[in-house]
Amino acid sequence: MRKKFVKRSLALALAFTIAFGENGYVLAEEPAQTVEFDISDGDAGEPGAPADVSGGDGTEVPGEDAGKPGENEDVSAGDVSGNVPEASDELEEMFPGLTEEYALTATEMDDKTILGNYAQEWGGAEEGVDYAESEILVEAETEEEANAYAQAFNGTLTDYFFGVAVITLNADESLPEASVKDAVYASSLEEMALPAAWPNYYRYIEDVDAEEIVEEQTYDFAAAEEEESGGQEEEEFLGTDGYNDPYLNTTNGGYQWQHSVLNSQLAWAAGYRGKGVKVAVLDTGILAGHDDVSAVKTIDVGYGTADGHGHGTHVSGIIGAKLNNGTGGAGVAPECYIYSIKVLRDTGSGASSTIIKGVNQAVNNRVDIINMSLGGALYSKVEADAYQRAYEAGIAVFCAAGNEFSNSAHYPAAYKSTISIAALDKSMGKAYFSNYDSGVRYSAPGVDIYSTYKDSASSYKSMSGTSQATPVTAGAAAVIWATLPSNLSGKAKVDALLKKMDSSCSKVTGKGLGKGCIDLAKALGLTNNEAAPKKPEFVTKPGTYTSPSIRVAIKSPDPGCIIYYSTDGKPVTYKNGVLSDNALPYTSTTGIPVGNQASVTVYAIALKSSNRLASPALSGRFTFKPEVSSLTVTSTNGVSTLAQGTSLTLKAACTPDYAPDKKITWSLERYNNNTASDNDPKVTGVSINASGKVTASKTALTGTYLITAKMANNNSVKKTFTIKVCAVSSNPVTSITTKTKSVTVNTGAAFTLAATDVTVTRKNKTTYNGSSLSWTIEDSSIASMTKNNGNVVITGNKAGKTKLVGVATDGSGKMVTIPITVKQAVTSVTIANSGTAMCVRQGKSVKLTANVFPSTAANKKVKWSYSPAGEGITVVNGVVKAAKNAKPCNITVTATAADGSGASANYVISIIEEEKNTTLTVDKKSVDIFRTTNNKGAATSATVAVNCSSPYWSATSSAPGLVSVTGSGSKLTIKATGNGTGTATVTVATTDGTNKKATIKVTVKNPATNLMISPQGGRSNYVAKGTTLKLIPTFETASGKVNADAKKLTWTSSNPSAVKVDNQGRVTGMSDRSYKVTITAKTNDGSNLVATYVVVSCDKVKKIKVGYARAYSLEVGEVGGERLYETGTSYGTCSYAVDVKSNKEGLTVGYTVSNGYPYITFAGNKVGTYTVTVSCIDGSSAKATYKVIVKPKSK
User: Which end of the chain has fewer surrounding CB within 10 Å, N or C?
Assistant: First the structure.
């Protein structure tokens, strides 16, 4: 009877889901399968002992190279001589064997040896309990070969798929009846002409009695909405990063905390959502039409597709539930495609043959990832080969390590080609129920995981176990898979995935947890919520371009960032929440227009919206070397008439003017009646040199000449200019003079050069004014000119210098040059604090400050005045002073720009009667506020009471980019701008000239966004009397790094007489009876976070006993178990919370509860003597050692 129970309990060793709560822990609702996972316990250690750390950067993972059983070690079961009977007449009568036509290959003979090596396992298994009755599994290359093998075993080929034959024994009833064990034994013998045959193992998920399940928290959203809101439409809640799924909200009881650990939302925001990745879930099927899981393909391998258990629906939702659909939560890879393959019946059991068929269906459908939240303790080479085929096909197979409280290996997690996953609690330590060993590769959140469920299309449920940790990891793998190079295939792609995952793990606490937990931010090159973003990247690479201008594209490698750039040659900065004046927001639709000059340096920073931290600066130089596209030809003096015996210089302006090659060739032709004629300078007497200088000899032929300027490197780019050569005037201009020697003008202002200011003198001494001259300005971008009745009106355009040139039009070449200086004018003036009421008491003074704009104004001085003029009031350099006998009144003080631009500003000041003993105080010398709020209403502002005997006061902030202030009466409001964290000083001062001041130090910080507490790694929630348990707080910081004071907590106990707690979160058991006690932790910094954890008091164990014998004996391949007994120090209630270990490999151990009784379970794998240690994980120091002897299998 005991033997049958123990076999059944080991069958439960699949990746059980654990439902645990206030009354401790119980196994619950996980499909069990024959090749199940055993769930082994971690090393809880003594309270206060140093924590073991697995994974993370630079952490050596024990067993990484040694790997899993069978990977780099002898998988034999030890000395099995005598375990398998020699060939006998009886066996030969049972099984006809193969004909000579089917000789076994060397590989098939090796398979027989492997089968014999595992005789310890299959020899002790029970038909109908651990494997299917009268069925064996044999690998065959063809169906014809499979039929031949069936005949050799006196069987019928029941099914054949993907190289696996399912054979039902005893087809010919005239032959002796054979059991599965007979067939397996016989096929392991070298002399028998039979291929290796394996039992068709079962795998199980075991349901727990309803009364044992604590707080499952199944939730139906549709029903809840109807009940809570009366069917009324509620305001939509937008979760972190704008997602409206309720379980992404930290205030929701079903909060999916695994996403915070993985940094899922950072990945989603960056566009990494596993799009198109195909994930096969081999489980109990799926609820068709669930609101949150729709991208599903179902595959029937014999059990149908509907999920009557719920486990498969739950696992599928963890991987691929929809994002931002306003219901439930989200899968880690919300845009992946789920292939649901039901390999377990609704009872939670499934045959090995069905699981293999499911694996091969996944291979045939070319999925990328398989999730296997199931397992068991027995090895099957047929299964191992199926998983190897999946790996070679390029499929990553993630399997649950199991929940057996032990370090035992389970299958398929322990196969060489699969990936084993352990479970973590909210402290990022080993969940106390989780298996652990050197074969575990990764660990992931596996406690209180909310996901989709089978009860309705809108139902959800919380489950715990390595069954949940595995899809969390598989979902992360799907997100990463989508980023792998498309040219990879086969096992090379799986290897690339694992290499990327290996380098992306965060550290966890506990032994045997592999490389740690996957961090998607690290895997995808993103920064986490506490870090500044990486600097932007140029999509358009800096360098040299032949086009005159381009639009530069840049991007941020981090999501949720705003990019700011500059092209003025100065870097963009972000300090105290304020961007530099040159910062321009980047938009991807327009890019950054650069060019139209020889070179431009682009600077850019990324500003992360979540924490308002700025990246390092990006800079790149863009050089432009275009060809000249057009020419403009003018004369240097602005005229086109040339007298005989004079010269005229032409200049060609290139567009663009920053083209590197601006070499020009000049040519000249003489036109007569619009017809080109002789252009020989010896004939015409007119020539042009390489510099564009035209010279007419004294005997030059008069007339029209066409000058052509051409680009030397491209003659198609050209421009013509016409000049006229005239005879020398008999009375030429001999000089030009002006009274105005230079012109200075402000931007936007004008200066008129009167024609009468200019004197033009001819040869005969006659004079006239400058109205007949040809006037030009050398650089029209700095100043422009117009003529008005012979006068020249000069207007300033921008600050700089140029020249005004006047030239005689008679060909004499005489000219006058007047320098022009344009200065930047003042465009506006403001007076600081002009919005604040200010007054001056009799006998007092106040200081006004004028601000002049722009900052480049040439003259920033202002002139102060006031009106109406009154006796006893003076305004000098902004200081408004009222004499003691000044008349009370209102005056308007004016600050006027001294540069003549006319810009000015006014400020109204009241002159009031003198008051003695003015006082000013504030009720707070310092305040702390949060940069942004959280879901618990963290305050982003504070109110300060101002006690001032005068109604005239104002407040200013030393860092207005961080803190803004508003105040009136006796109330001052200090508010965070949200632009950054840091400190600022708010100064409150009287504005009546009494100069009373008070200061307030303001600290702006980030709020923590969520708080969770859980026990130290490996401990249960039981606390024995007189012992302690450290509760570990875990903070989420979605809004950025938090200050140290954010992690200071106030701890309370709901029943201190049963369990008390100190200010460090250390709980102490006070009672030897069982009481459920709620421990509450609250933040003290105003972030308003609260977390609770239920512990259970119990008696301190003084003695542990396993069974009543000193030792337990079993044969290789046999399973068994003994009752566990605990005796309390006060003979009170004991917890029976234990950890079980074997001192060496060869004995699989575990802990389970059946019908309310605790058992320690054993499975003999190798002959030997073992020491099993059972340790309390309730704080008690009691331990028990128990000897287990594994003997050879009886013949």
Answer: N
DSSP letter assigned to residue 215: -
* Radius of gyration of the chain measured on its C-alpha atoms: 45
Reported in sequence order, the residue ranges of 218-336 that DSSP labels E, i.e. its strands, are 219-220, 278-283, 296-300
Catalytic-role residue among 259, 290, 311, 410: 311
- Structure tokens that stand for 1091 in this block: 């977390």
Euclidean distance between CA atoms 310 and 322, whole angstroms: 18
Q: Crossing angle, helix 180-188 and helix 106-117, to 10 degrees?
A: 120
Marked catalytic residue, from 260, 373, 451, 467? 467
Q: How far apart are CA 27 and CA 773, in angstroms?
A: 106
Whole-Å CA distances, 146 to 150, 162, 203, 535, 1162:
6, 11, 24, 62, 36
| Residue pair 701/725 in contact by the 8 Å Cβ criterion | yes
CA-CA distance, 587 to 862, in Å (whole number)? 40
Q: Sign of the C-alpha dihedral, residues 421, 425, 428, 433?
A: negative
Question: With contact defined as beta carbons under 8 Å apart, do 650 and 707 qualify?
Answer: yes
pTM of the complete model beyond 0.90: no
Other C-beta atoms within 10 Å of 621: how many?
A: 11
Quick one: pLDDT at residue 56?
A: 54
Residue 460 host element (H or E): strand 459-465
Which residues in the chain come in under a pLDDT of 70?
1-88, 120, 204-242, 672-678, 833-837, 1195
| Structure token digits, residue 348 | 């939670």
- C-beta of residue 527 within 8 angstroms of C-beta of residue 613: no
In angstroms, the Cα distances linking 1088 to 936, 981, 1040, 1046 are: 6, 19, 17, 10
- The residue whose two tokens read 């995981």 is 449
Number of C-beta neighbours around residue 18 at 10 A: 28
What is the C-alpha separation between 329 and 324, in angstroms, rounded? 8
Q: Which of 41, 182, 207, 283 is catalytic?
A: 283
Q: Which residues contact 1095 (CB under 8 A, 6 or more apart)?
A: 1015, 1021, 1022, 1023, 1029, 1059, 1067, 1076, 1077, 1079
- What six digits make up the tokens of 70? 């069978």
Query: What is the SS3 assignment for 973?
Result: strand
Q: Which amino acid is at 868?
A: P
Q: Is 362 exposed, middle or buried (0-12, 13-18, 19+ CB in 10 A)?
A: buried
Cβ atoms of residues 257 and 426 within 8 Å:
yes
β-strand pairing of 543-545 with 1119-1128: unpaired
Which residue type is seen at 331? G
Helical axes 490-502 vs 466-481, angle rounded to 10°: 110
The pLDDT value given to residue 14: 32
Token pair belonging to 332: 């880690």
The tokens for 544 are 């040299």
Is residue 283 annotated as a catalytic residue, yes or no? yes
For residue 859, give both structure tokens: 């003259």
- CA 327 – CA 234 distance, rounded (Å): 13
Pairing between strand 278-283 and 337-342? parallel
- Rounded Cα distance, 586 and 606, in Å: 10
Rounded (10°) CA dihedral 200, 205, 209, 210: -150
What pLDDT, on a 0 to 100 scale, did the predictor assign at position 636?
A: 85
Distance between CA atoms of residues 883 and 140, nearest Å: 113
* 467 is a catalytic site residue: yes
**Per-residue pLDDT at 89:** 75
The whole-angstrom separation of Cα 53 and Cα 55 is 7
Q: At what angle do helices 381-392 and 352-364 cross, to 10 degrees?
A: 10
Check: CB of residue 767 under 8 Å from CB of residue 760. yes
Tokens 């701890």 sit at which residue?
1051
Q: What is the 3-state secondary structure (H, E, C) of 608-672?
A: ECCCCCECCCEEEEEEECCCCCEEEEEECCCCCEEECCCEEEEEEEEECCCCCCCCEEEEEEEEE
